[in-house]
Structures are given as C-alpha cells and as structure tokens.
C-alpha cells in the first residue's frame, strides 16, 4: 500500500457508515463538558444516546460567525471535512444548525493537543519529532492531492488519539486551491513569506509551516518570534532563524529546505511536479512511510486514557448554560436571519 493515501475504499466504508443514519440533531447527544473555546463558539464532549460512543461537537454562534466575516471559512470547513477520510485527519460525521448555532459532530480524540505535551516536556527528542513530522507529512500530502490547502498547522491543531497517533483538526482556514489564493490567514508565527507579501501563494505554504512546526518541537519555541507583528514579519521575510548552539547539521539542512522564501526550492511532498520530496531527505532515512501510514510505528508518547470518554488530557473550562436549540425570546419574535448563509449545514 502506498503511503500516499487516495482513500477511495476507506472513504466508501466511511460514507456507508455515515449514511446509515438520518441527519443527526442535538437531541441525539448528552452534552457533557467543554473541551475548548474559540472566538465564535466551543467544542464539547458529547455522548451519543444511541451507540454510547463519545464525540466532539464543535458549536459556532452564527451571529458571531457573520459579524467576524467567517462565513466562507465555516462553510469550507464542513464541505472539506465531509469529503475527507484519512488516518491522520479528524473524522467529521455530520453537521446541522438550529436558530442560533452551527454544529459539527466529529470523532472525539481523547489524547489532547500535541501542544499540551510539548509544553509539558519543553521540547521533544529528534526521534519523537521525526515520528510526529512523518504522520503530519502524510496528512498534508493527502490534503494536497485533493487540492486542499490547510493553512493552520501548529501544535494546538494536532490532536493525539488514545494510542498517541496524530489527528489534524480545525479546518476553519482550509480551502480548495487548484492554483493560487491570496487571503492572509493563519497563526502569525507560522505564516510563510509569500503569504505575508499578499502576492498570491500555493499549497507550498503548508510545507513552510511544517518547517516551523519541526523547529518548535525540537527547540521548544518557533524560529521566528517577536511581540511586535511588524518585526515578526520582517524576521520571516528575511528568514532570520536563531539556531541554537550545536544544532544537528542534518536537521538544519532539512529546515533550510523548508524555511526558504524561494518557493521553487522549498521541500514538499510527492505529486508536486518534480519538487524536492521531503520524505527523501537523509533525516527521514530511518522512516518507513508505508509503516507510518498503517500506524505500525510505535508513538513516542502514549496518553493516559482510561476510556473513550476520558477528558483528563484536556484543560478544564468554566461551563456555561447551553441555550442550543432555544430561541432568544424578544419582541418582535426571534427569526433566524442567518440560516441561508450556511447551506452546507
């Protein structure tokens, strides 16, 4: 089996399972607790009333999504994840809306964020970084083979399952891009130079972000950092990297191949018209990417998870009342003025 995953057979099995049930609704679940919060909503741990499995339900306030001009990103997230199925991507089962909120039902990934483990350990060994990078590379290759740019790679968006394997999550910035796109979005520390210049960019920005991720996992901080955004962007554009003393020259060579403003020279995955394949770099010589794809390589860290609904690997949040499904009572009577903006739901 090739490490480049087309996913057709697996996707058919997934769609078979997904289409067996009627469209889901909030009443099908017990909302148990908050797993994370964002600008427009929350992610909840929920248990199905039918199969008793636990799921993560992402909720978004429609008014806030519209006010913050995130309508396209939100519709993109559902339509992209709906068609994707891969071992290292979070699985979306369904989406729906009520008068005030949007809901996306996804597999619950109980190991928490890679970010949490990185902060606990301060930095990872080269062996651990190689493992996480290899799984992320296969996820990015799959997305790019489907002409999807991810645009938000960072430790906070990499979840670990109960065995310690990665799952990319949060596809709010993902977009189908056959050629070029121009929107500046993502996390400042991870932005590629061509995105900052606003002159159009391609899927290659994800490989720059991979370089930032690898450096951060090895060193414990991103290669470009500054409290002043202008200074931060200047460092990125100039590619001014603060290399620690004694940095391994092999991994430095790899990172210089990823963190290069010259897009034509940048490492990236296969199926990219003869560009340098990152998987062929000497730093990955010990990696069998077919075994990685089959999840037969032992993860460096196995989360302490007692059962499929264990939330010990997630931070605790102050819980609020969940007015999902309820109208905001007002005079005149409340009307859902935003429903038509979210046809994907």
UniProtKB/TrEMBL annotation:
Q: Name one GO molecular function term.
A: ATP binding
Q: Which InterPro entries match?
A: AGC-kinase_C, Kinase-like_dom_sf, Prot_kinase_dom, Ser/Thr_kinase_AS
Q: Which UniProt keywords apply?
A: ATP-binding, Kinase, Nucleotide-binding, Serine/threonine-protein kinase, Transferase
For this protein, the record's SMART domains field holds: S_TKc
Q: Which Gene3D superfamilies match?
A: Phosphorylase Kinase, domain 1, Transferase(Phosphotransferase) domain 1
Which top class of enzyme applies to this chain? Answer: transferase
**Chain ranges of the Protein kinase domain:** 29-284
Any one GO biological process: anatomical structure morphogenesis
Name the catalysed reactions.
L-seryl-[protein] + ATP = O-phospho-L-seryl-[protein] + ADP + H(+); L-threonyl-[protein] + ATP = O-phospho-L-threonyl-[protein] + ADP + H(+)
Record keyword Nucleotide-binding present: yes
| PANTHER family with a match to the protein in the record | CAMP-DEPENDENT PROTEIN KINASE CATALYTIC SUBUNIT 1, CYCLIC NUCLEOTIDE-DEPENDENT PROTEIN KINASE
Q: What name goes with this protein?
A: cAMP-dependent protein kinase
In which organism is this protein found?
A: Absidia repens
Task: Show the taxonomic lineage.
Answer: Eukaryota, Fungi, Fungi incertae sedis, Mucoromycota, Mucoromycotina
